[in-house]
Specification:
It catalyses: [protein]-L-isoaspartate + S-adenosyl-L-methionine = [protein]-L-isoaspartate alpha-methyl ester + S-adenosyl-L-homocysteine. One of its GO terms (cellular component) is cytoplasm. The active site is at residue 62. This is Protein-L-isoaspartate O-methyltransferase. The protein is of the alpha/beta class. The protein has one domain: Vaccinia Virus protein VP39 (Rossmann fold). 28% of the residues lie in helices and 28% in strands. The strands form two sheets. A seven-stranded mixed beta sheet has the order 5-4-3-6-7-8-9, with helices on one face. A two-stranded antiparallel ribbon has the order 1-2. The longest helix is centred in the N-terminal third of the chain and has 13 residues, at 6-18.
């Protein structure tokens, strides 16, 4: 799938190692997943740069370091089993998650983006992903509880509906804030949520509602 891009993908993974991503499985998945499939033709030459790129509809494909780090954090805190992804977007983060975790449930509020993401995942033979067109703020109650939740857009405040869908021992990673955003980890211990501030980040906002 990578063909002429393999050298660029390997260089990206070397950079991710330098920046502190240590999980071997995640590095291997990042090296073998064709990021150029998830961007428009005119941006393919930038596919393996460590930067976010526009995907239309005011949305972006996240910086590879952030994709790898958010996935790694969930693994490091012991998350196994089913994952809820809020914000399918291009489907790139979804593809990484699907190769690391058992089952991925992914919600996207913009139907056209969801359709494109589904097509890309099928081309990659990733069939352990279930998608839904809907409001990410509400999560996916009928599939809860989840071992992990990953939110790929910044929420002004902590979405209580999402926290409620974590299983005991589960974890959610989410950017919180508006002008100043902080990547934040919540770990559920019985009925308590332990909060850890991880790093300053910049994401598009988590918007309520859905677009057909």
């Amino acid at each position: 799938m990578l063909n002429n891009y393999q050298g660029s993908a390997n260089a990206l993974v070397a950079l991710l190692k330098q920046q502190g991503v240590v999980d071997k499985q995640i590095l291997e998945v990042m090296a073998s997943t064709p990021r150029h499939m998830f961007v428009d033709e005119v941006l393919k030459h930038k596919s393996y740069e460590n930067t976010a790129l526009p995907i239309g509809q005011g949305q972006t494909i996240s910086q590879p370091f952030i994709v790898a780090k958010m996935t790694e954090v969930l693994k490091q805190v012991g998350v196994k089993g089913s994952i809820l992804e809020v914000g399918t977007g291009s489907g790139y983060q979804t593809a990484i998650l699907a190769q690391v975790f058992e089952q991925v449930f992914s919600i996207e509020r913009i139907k056209s983006l969801q359709w494109q993401a589904r097509r890309r995942l099928h081309l990659l033979d990733l069939y352990n992903v279930t998608m839904k067109h809907g409001d990410g703020w509400k999560g996916w109650p009928s599939k809860a509880p989840f071992a992990g939740i990953i939110v790929t857009a910044a929420a002004q405040s902590v979405p209580d509906d999402l926290l409620a869908q974590l299983q005991d021992g589960g974890a959610m990673i989410i950017p919180i804030g508006v002008e100043t955003q902080t990547l934040t980890l919540f770990v559920k211990k019985r009925e308590q949520y332990i909060r850890h501030a991880l790093a300053p980040v910049r994401f598009v906002p988590l918007v309520a509602g859905e677009v057909s």
